[in-house]
TrEMBL record:
Residues 2-250 form the Glutamine amidotransferase type-2 domain. This is Gamma-glutamyl-hercynylcysteine sulfoxide hydrolase. It comes from Streptomyces pristinaespiralis (strain ATCC 25486 / DSM 40338 / CBS 914.69 / JCM 4507 / KCC S-0507 / NBRC 13074 / NRRL 2958 / 5647). CDD domains: YafJ (cd01908). PROSITE patterns: GATASE_TYPE_2 (PS51278). It holds the Pfam family GATase_4. Keywords: Glutamine amidotransferase, Hydrolase. HAMAP family: EgtC.
């Protein structure tokens, strides 16, 4: 379920990354090529991007399908950025959260997205949620599994964990509490991208010094795209990509 993408590199229009590629996120909302779960990503979308000189990203999120939002396509034509995180949300059971449930979630310099599902939600995550301060639970933007995963990741970031460590530990703890969950997480601060492949597809494209793209699936047929093995942590900048195996929880 869901498709997401992160980019760091030389500034590009949002449209060049999301709309214009033949199989970009815009098209993936109704015709993904490698999505294993769900078929139509029409329950909301969001884009977060960074402006030069401002470490806090802007966001544009809506509760409807990306193809129906003419304001987005106009905005994407003129807005340029050196770092982007965007997502389209799989059609799911109806809920009251609407736009608030659409990634990316944000705090300070961070943008976050989750592609997947927590098995047994919400009961399976009770013990992990109980470990969070009440203030952080009450501050969650939405009442879905992705929002709780973001709260768990953010708690670790605030305690000083690196982006990679925050994702790896959150995936480990969630997989132990809810075996069989799909936990492809994506995080950026505008400079570093951290991501996990855990139960769903993840790919990356890198041209050192120019750009690095990490996505649920390739947006074109460039032979430089490489698939990330399942149970892998990815850490990337615009110059390099590091892959690290993730161990199953004991």
């Amino acid at each position: 379920m869901c498709r997401h993408i992160a980019f760091v590199g030389r500034p590009e229009p949002l449209a060049a990354l999301l709309v214009e590629p033949g199989h970009g996120l815009f098209r993936q909302s109704w015709a993904p090529r490698r999505q294993r779960y769900g078929t139509v990503n029409a329950d909301g979308f969001g884009i977060g991007w960074y402006a030069d000189g401002d470490p806090v990203p802007a966001r544009y999120r809506r509760s409807g399908p990306i193809w129906a939002d003419l304001s987005f396509t106009d905005l994407a034509r003129v807005v340029r950025s050196h770092a982007v995180l965007a997502a389209v949300r799989d059609a799911t059971a109806s809920g009251a959260d609407g736009e608030a449930a659409a990634a990316p979630f944000a705090s300070g310099p961070w943008l976050f997205s989750h592609n997947g599902a927590v098995r047994g939600w919400p009961a399976s995550m009770g013990p992990l949620a109980a470990a969070l301060p009440a203030e952080e639970l009450l501050s969650m933007e939405a009442r879905n599994d992705s929002a709780l995963l973001w709260a768990l990741v953010l708690r670790r970031l605030r305690e000083g964990d690196s982006p990679a460590q925050a994702l790896a530990d959150t995936v480990r703890d969630t997989a132990a509490a809810a075996p069989g969950s799909r936990l492809n997480l994506l995080l950026t601060d505008g400079t570093v991208i951290a991501a996990t492949a855990w139960g769903d597809t993840l790919w990356y494209l890198t041209e050192p010094g120019r750009r690095t793209v990490v996505a649920s699936e390739p947006y074109d047929d460039d032979p430089l795209w490489q698939e990330v093995p399942d149970r892998t942590l990815l850490t990337a900048t615009r110059t390099d990509v590091l892959l690290t195996e993730l161990k199953e929880p004991t």
